[in-house]
Design a protein that fits this description.
By secondary structure, this protein is of the alpha/beta class. It contains eight helices and seven strands; from the N terminus they run βαβαβαβαβαβαααβ. A seven-stranded parallel sheet has the order 3-2-1-4-5-6-7, with helices on both faces. The longest helix is centred in the middle third of the chain and has 29 residues. The model has no long low-confidence stretch (mean pLDDT 97). Bound molecules: nicotinamide-adenine-dinucleotide (NAD). The site of nicotinamide-adenine-dinucleotide has 27 residues, from α1, β2 and α6.
Length: 259
């Protein structure tokens, strides 16, 4: 299948590693020019070079923190008129809600709700004027099914989901869709950190906890960033103009619901 997005321009936030990188690479493989961002210069430059040499597309790399207004304005200066926006940022820390302060909650809400909303606000009207836009928010399976130790994520991401549910119905008439992509366990640095936290809490070795977690998933494994990126690229394709406001769950079937 041809995705029909060659020549388009995409912003992929928080994309030097993990799921964001998977999305940036998959879009670039479809001929999309990508503007990627992350805080660490070295990893971002290496990822930009990898995408460039593998795909030949234009890759702009912006070293910044997407959770700040300065960071977001730097991304937008590098790519003022994106056709595609992939919202992503680091996830909040794991822990017991009794230990989290007001500042912890504000940080989580800022990173996983308000920053994506600000990026949408800055880009959606241009997409509406041009008659094409695809916005994908990387959220989490925790929106559908709470994860015990990730209460900050469970809460903050539902705020974004609620906002998108409303706006996405107002943009589709102009061929601008907004959907959420919900990762379950994908084999990234983030997952490795969460497993280490769980192993410590259970008094187990990290390797053992990793094996248990993978075996407990209906797929018997973790997802790959390539699978995630390919799904994201499809969600950004010309074929998804009739799909908006959806929660696309990629969790190996771990959420056991009929609908
Ligand atoms: P990761 O730690 O592997 O990669 C995160 C990327 O984001 C890195 O490139 C990092 O440099 C960048 N980044 C983090 N904070 C940033 C910021 N403030 N500004 C700019 N760049 C920033 O994480 P991941 O596994 O790819 O996860 C991506 C998102 O998906 C996170 O919000 C995470 O909580 C969520 N998620 C991941 C999983 C999983 O299993 N991997 C599951 C559910 C949800």
């Amino acid at each position: 299948m041809k995705l029909g997005i060659a020549g388009k321009a995409a912003i992929v936030c928080a994309a030097s590693k993990g799921l964001g990188k998977g999305c940036a690479l998959a879009l670039a493989q479809e001929g999309v020019a990508v503007t990627i961002s992350a805080r660490g210069e070295e990893a971002l430059a290496a990822t930009a070079e990898e995408i460039r040499s593998e795909t030949g597309v234009t890759v702009r790399a912006v070293v910044c923190d997407v959770t700040t207004s300065l960071g977001r304005s730097e991304i937008l200066a590098a790519c003022p008129q994106p056709d595609i926006l992939i919202n992503n940022a680091g996830g909040p820390p794991a822990g017991d809600f009794r230990d989290f302060t007001m500042e912890d909650w504000q940080r989580a809400v800022n990173a996983n709700m308000l920053s994506p909303i600000e990026m949408i606000k800055a880009t959606v009207d241009g997409m509406l004027e041009r008659g094409f836009g695809r916005i994908v928010n990387i959220t989490s399976s925790s929106v559908r099914s709470p994860i015990d130790e990730l209460c900050l994520s469970n809460g903050a991401r539902c705020g974004l989901t609620g906002f998108v549910a409303g706006l996405s119905r107002k943009t589709i008439r102009r061929n601008v869709t907004i959907n959420n992509l919900l990762p379950g366990p994908f084999d990234t640095d983030r997952l490795r950190g969460n497993i280490a936290h769980r192993a410590e809490a259970a008094g187990k070795e990290i390797a053992e906890m990793r094996e248990i977690s993978a075996a407990n998933n209906p797929a018997g494994r973790f997802g790959t960033v390539e699978e995630f990126g390919a799904t994201c690229a499809f969600m950004c394709s010309v074929h998804t103009g009739y799909m908006t406001g959806q929660q696309i769950m990629m969790d190996g079937g771990a959420f056991s619901g009929t609908m």
